[in-house]
């Protein structure tokens, strides 16, 4: 059985991004980017939805064409994604896909990922894709849940509240780490709950 890791970057108030802010809220540092590069070099297959595919493939290809808009570390991290095996779940995208090493799955994502966990050749982790991750967690398919928390509150400009619509989930911490003196990694094993602990069934 292959492992599935849900992987998010998040503001302190639970947003995936914020209008007008740069990527990583402008707070990525060399230690974090080095760790991120190491994650991308691993044996994981990346899972994502159509919106994340469009955004990240464009950024990866732009970074490969010109590093003018990216630091050296950012460009290396983005271009490195081209070599990583990827699966995108979408009913709107069409093949052939322009991002190398990407497979398109048009059917039910939960069913497809359950099959990949059972019969796949490598562990999996997600890239962005808030609604996909929510569906996979609610279906009980997620083995690990990892956040890198960025020290900003974007209550006015935040976009994509990550945890809206989630079931109740108990989280058992398995690891934590600080990057660049300001970013906090938190890693958990999730258990989807039917209700608050101790509530009558």
UniProtKB/TrEMBL annotation:
Q: Which domain of life is it from?
A: Bacteria
Which residue ranges does the record assign to the Bacterial bifunctional deaminase-reductase C-terminal domain?
4-184
For this protein, the record's InterPro entries field holds: DHFR-like_dom_sf (IPR024072), RibDG_C (IPR002734), Riboflavin_Biosynth_HTPR (IPR050765)
Report the protein name in the record. Dihydrofolate reductase family protein
